[in-house]
Write a structure and sequence with these properties.
Layout lengths: L5 H4 L6 E2 L2 H4 L7 E2 L3 H8 L25 H9 L3 H9 L5 H7 L3 H5 L11 H14 L15 E5 L3 H12 L3 E6 L7 H4 L9 H13 L2 E4 L9 H6 L3 E4 L5 E2 L12 E3 H12 L16 E5 L3 H13 L3 E5 L11 H4 L11 H4 L3 E3 L2 E8 L5 E8 L12 E4 L2 E4 L3 E3 L5 H5 L23 E3 L2 H4 L4 H20 L7
Parallel strand pairs: 3-4, 3-6, 4-5, 6-17, 8-15, 9-10, 9-15, 10-11
Antiparallel strand pairs: 1-2, 7-16, 12-13, 13-14
Helix pairs in contact: 3-4, 4-5, 4-8, 5-8, 6-8, 9-19, 13-14
Bound molecules: flavin-adenine dinucleotide (FAD).
Length: 478
């Protein structure tokens, strides 16, 4: 703790967004970096608490990758940025991803959040890694020796990437198989560019390739390549295929044209931005349309921001839950993640938000195109309130109601692998081992739909488990 009185002298100050009217004209990131002195002042607010709830080691609250937050806050306060990135990288392979898209459970757990003024941990994290890239301090870390062991990883999202980087640095030969044309999973094709510019992923792919990771893109394991072949050609494989099966809304009229899952819509725009040859059977665009987004989470927000940038006439977001309280009861919630009203940058750009709403049916025109949603208000037990029926005009409906499980067809089916009660791949967090011999799993495929930071944690921990299995012991952090 560099400055004992920092938290008493300095008020919280965080990154701001570029004005909505400017940022919706393109898909660029819009966070405005804090100046160096401001960052150092903000870091000085960290109290280095006796129990650092921000990186709770049990992983129940605070930072899931156990970032040593007080340590690097102190280093930033002192201007020791190079040491700060060394410390940050010791727990997180990709802080530039989490520094941009993490909801920051660390800030919810910060002791200063008791008075609603947590340390700006996420902005400081992002500044450390951005400065490190800018100053050329991040290099490939090639292993000194080869173990002669060979590992295959299916899926190149944050879980697969983190596992691959940990394992290649331990001297193993690592092959990553990805069905898409580019690496990154939902970082690449789900999260819009305005939240995470894809150059951040490209830079890591270059680093990892130089470290020795061999990427095989455009290969759908279980479809283009039998999973048995992958198993036979590696000493161990890790399944990091994410949770790709979307939750549907099978109500009357679901088949009208213009009703799509969020993940049919969002990847198209990311691919357009990334210059990927589009092989879509139909372009799904919000331009000139009244858009209704069903689902109030992150994915729903991304649909809003993308629709607005495409030039939607209106965007309405429907949420079945009642509006959460505007402020949490700290005594009941801190240091856990609180349920409270949050407004995302995309919602701020001009969406109408409706709570406690259930969609009962879709109505279309004679040509089979969606025209209206028939909705009803629900009470706190989600029971329809009679007489509260209403309808909303819609030319495009985006279903963003979350993901139920990994896709079973293909790879998992061929493996006949054991699943848990939610249909995720069954494995515990001690050894990440599945029911199939030499097969491990990590990330959303094991855990169910989650967060980037949890995927990185699982990738790292799974890498430790695989390394230990192959070598008898592992020096990789868990
Ligand atoms: C639209 C959207 C926005 C989100 N926004 C945020 C956010 O702001 N912050 C946050 O923390 N989290 C966010 N999330 C959640 C986060 O992206 C995921 O939790 C995280 O990416 C999971 O990582 P993963 O590596 O387990 O899986 P994924 O990122 O899903 O990667 C899995 C990869 O495996 C590949 N794959 C699957 N099966 C096969 C196969 N058989 N053969 C070859 N390849 C295969 C897929 O193509 C994919 O590339 C968002 C999710 C969505 C959908």
């Amino acid at each position: 703790m560099g400055k004992v009185t920092g938290f008493l002298e300095v008020d919280r100050q965080d990154r701001k967004y570029r004005p909505a009217a400017d940022r919706v004209r393109n898909y660029n990131e819009f966070l405005i970096e804090l100046p160096e002195q401001t960052l150092r002042d903000q870091a000085s607010r960290c109290m280095d608490c006796g129990i650092p709830f921000c990186h709770d080691v049990k992983g129940l609250k605070g930072c899931p990758v156990n970032n040593q937050i007080p340590d690097w806050n102190d280093l930033v306060y002192r201007g020791e940025w190079k040491e700060a990135i060394r410390d940050l990288h010791s727990t997180n392979n990709f802080p530039e991803f989490t520094g941009r898209v993490c909801p920051a459970p660390c800030e919810a757990s910060c002791t200063l959040n008791i008075t609603d003024s947590p340390v700006t941990i996420k902005s400081i994290e992002c500044a450390i890694v951005d400065k490190a890239w800018k100053n050329g301090w991040i290099h490939p870390q090639k292993p000194a020796n080869s173990t002669g062991k060979n590992i295959g990883i299916v899926g190149s999202g944050p879980a697969g990437m983190a596992a691959a980087q940990q394992l290649v640095r331990s001297g193993h030969e690592v092959h990553v198989y990805e069905k898409n044309q580019k690496i990154g999973g939902l970082l690449r094709y789900g999260i819009p560019d305005f939240k995470l510019d894809k150059s951040h992923i490209d830079r890591r792919v270059v680093q990892m390739s130089e470290e020795g990771v061999i990427f095989h893109t455009g290969i759908h394991v279980g479809v283009d390549l039998p999973v048995k072949k992958v198993i036979d050609s590696h000493d161990a494989i890790i399944l990091a295929g994410g949770a790709e099966a979307p939750r549907n809304l099978p109500i009357q009229g679901r088949n009208f044209n213009g009703i799509h899952f969020a993940m049919d819509f969002l990847p198209q725009q990311n691919k357009r931005n990334g210059g990927e040859q589009s092989e879509f059977s139909e372009d799904i665009l919000a331009t000139g349309k009244n858009v209704v987004v069903i689902g109030g989470g992150d994915t729903g927000s991304d649909c809003i921001g993308t629709s607005i940038r495409q030039g939607a006439v209106s965007v309405t977001q429907l949420e079945i839950m009642p509006p959460p309280p505007s402020k949490e009861n700290k005594l009941a919630t801190w240091p856990n993640w609180p349920l409270k009203m949050r407004t995302s940058s995309s919602q701020e750009e001009g969406a109408e938000r409706e709570f406690s709403v259930m969609t009962q049916s879709f109505e279309g025109d004679i040509d089979g195109n969606i025209k209206k949603l028939h909705c009803i208000k629900v009470d706190k037990d989600f029971k329809p309130i009679s007489g509260s029926e209403f309808h909303i005009k819609a030319d495009l409906v985006l279903i963003a109601m979350g993901f139920v499980s990994p896709s079973y067809d293909g790879m998992l089916e061929e493996l006949n692998i054991d699943l848990d009660e939610k249909n995720n791949v069954l494995a515990n967090t001690i050894d990440y081992k599945t029911s199939c011999s030499t097969v491990w799993t990590a990330g959303d495929m094991r855990r169910g739909q989650s967060l980037v930071v949890w995927a990185i944690r699982e990738g790292r921990q799974c890498a430790h488990a695989v390394d230990k299995f192959l070598m008898g012991k592992s020096f990789l952090p868990r």
